[in-house]
Design a protein that fits this description.
Length: 446
């Protein structure tokens, strides 16, 4: 025990790495899996012309723009002037989503609340869904805020509707937008007047039958008013939402989890195989004999990359086929799946060979490949807003220097139908860069 403690005391760097690595990996993985933006940035464009945000509801006027404050209780608004500016904020990543209030929303809301017909007002929501976890968070946040606004508007409508019903039943004055104040007789008073008029007629007067029918109608209408219920139910959600994904994934969360599992397995297999096989050539003293005439250094690197990529590709292709059958994915897109898996495997293999060339020992190569794998995967899964903006930009740069994030993007695009060329080009560039790094590392490999 004393000897081991003395070794630890004489190796402070080793102790620091062991402690620091475990802490960093725990924080990164925890942030990637559980954290979400506390108050996400949402671009907000109000296209309603100035002075036209009020609606007439019975005898009062309501400023619909005031309900925008309800939306901002859960989001951090970035106010813009046009729809194009709002969409640009989302595309650039400055905002997680965009909320656009069209110019005709007040007019349509007035028609809906006044039961004047026409379609309900619709607000437009645009969001950037880099992965389904992020999309789910953005959707739930925006839907919750719009539900709050709908509830507040519906409350005003229901209060005014209750006043209308009371006037219809008992009578009273009501203010209409065009004609002004109008005195409503009311069903109860109408029935009383009819009954009094009917009582003053002779018993055999033919008018008594017609007046009796009107009296019964007034009584039944006042007692029931069941027709008011569908009307009130139809305006319980006066504002509709149209959501548009302008960038990112449309895969389900279960499909995204399967994609992450497949790419994670590929990363471990390709990195460990490629790094270990190249380092093994040096440990067994075979490297010098191979490059003296049997094979060139570049060909040796290509062989190691190819073998590691082939093994990883076969394994993950079988995994993806099983998961796709379980998740009912569209097998018509399977050729694109294979393209994404193939280029991803090559990029991981090139990275593994670079690790093996730099470390030059099997144990060191395996340890470095394993140590790098977890934080690389976790960093790629951290959503925007979980950390500060500057730190997130740094995380994107770091994760973009390794194949996990572009591999996940490529496979997701192959499955969901997104942009596939950009992540494939990214993977090709990384494969070339790691291949060059591996080739340079062989200068001091023998």
């Amino acid at each position: 025990m004393l000897k081991d403690l003395q070794i630890l005391r004489r190796s402070p760097l080793l102790v620091a790495v062991l402690v620091g690595y475990s802490v960093v990996v725990s924080l990164v993985v925890g942030t990637a899996l559980s954290a979400g933006p506390g108050k996400p940035k949402v671009a907000f464009a109000n296209l309603v012309p100035a002075g036209q945000s009020e609606i007439a509801l019975g005898g009062q006027r309501i400023d619909a723009a005031g309900y925008a404050n309800l939306l901002f209780q859960k989001v951090d608004p970035i106010r813009v002037r046009t729809r194009a500016q709002a969409i640009a904020k989302v595309k650039s990543g400055e905002a997680l989503g965009a909320l656009v209030v069209p110019a005709d929303v007040t007019q349509k809301l007035q028609g809906t609340l006044g039961l004047g017909g026409g379609g309900p007002p619709t607000v437009e929501v645009y969001y950037n869904a880099e992965n389904p976890l992020k999309r789910q968070y953005v959707q739930s946040t925006i839907n919750a805020t719009l539900a709050d606004a709908n509830q507040a508007i519906s409350g005003e409508v229901l209060r005014e509707a209750a006043r209308y019903l009371n006037v219809i039943v008992a009578g009273g004055k009501i203010a209409l937008p065009i004609v002004g104040a109008v005195d409503i007789l009311g069903l109860r008073r109408a029935q009383a007047i009819i009954d009094a008029a009917s009582a003053g007629l002779p018993a055999n007067a033919p008018e008594r039958v017609a007046l009796g029918q009107v009296s019964r109608f007034a009584r039944l209408a006042a007692d029931n008013l069941d027709l008011s219920k569908p009307i009130l139910a139809s305006i319980s959600s006066p504002v509709r939402v149209r959501q548009t994904v302008i960038k990112g994934s449309s895969s389900s969360i279960s499909a995204f989890a399967a994609e992450a599992a497949v790419i994670g397995s590929m990363m471990f297999v390709a990195l460990l195989l490629a790094a270990g096989m190249l380092a093994l050539e040096r440990e067994e003293n075979a490297f010098g004999r191979l490059v003296r005439g049997l094979v060139s250094r570049s060909a040796l690197i290509a062989q190691k990359v190819g073998l590691a990529a082939l093994c990883a590709f076969v394994l993950t292709a079988a995994m993806l086929a099983i998961l796709a059958a379980l998740l009912h994915l569209d097998f018509a897109r399977s050729p694109l799946w294979l393209v994404a898996l193939g280029l991803s495997a090559v990029a991981f293999g090139a990275m593994g060979v670079a690790i093996g060339g730099i470390t030059r020992e099997v144990r060191s190569a395996s340890l470095v490949a394993f140590v790098l794998s977890l934080p690389i995967a976790a960093l790629a899964l951290i959503p925007p807003g979980a950390v500060a903006g500057g730190l997130y930009d740094l995380i994107r740069v770091i994760s973009g220097a390794f194949p996990f994030r572009p591999s996940l993007e490529a496979l997701d695009a192959a499955i969901s139908g997104g942009d596939l060329l950009a992540p494939l080009a990214h993977l090709a560039a990384l494969a070339l860069a790691f291949g060059v790094l591996a080739r340079l590392s062989l200068r001091r490999f023998a």
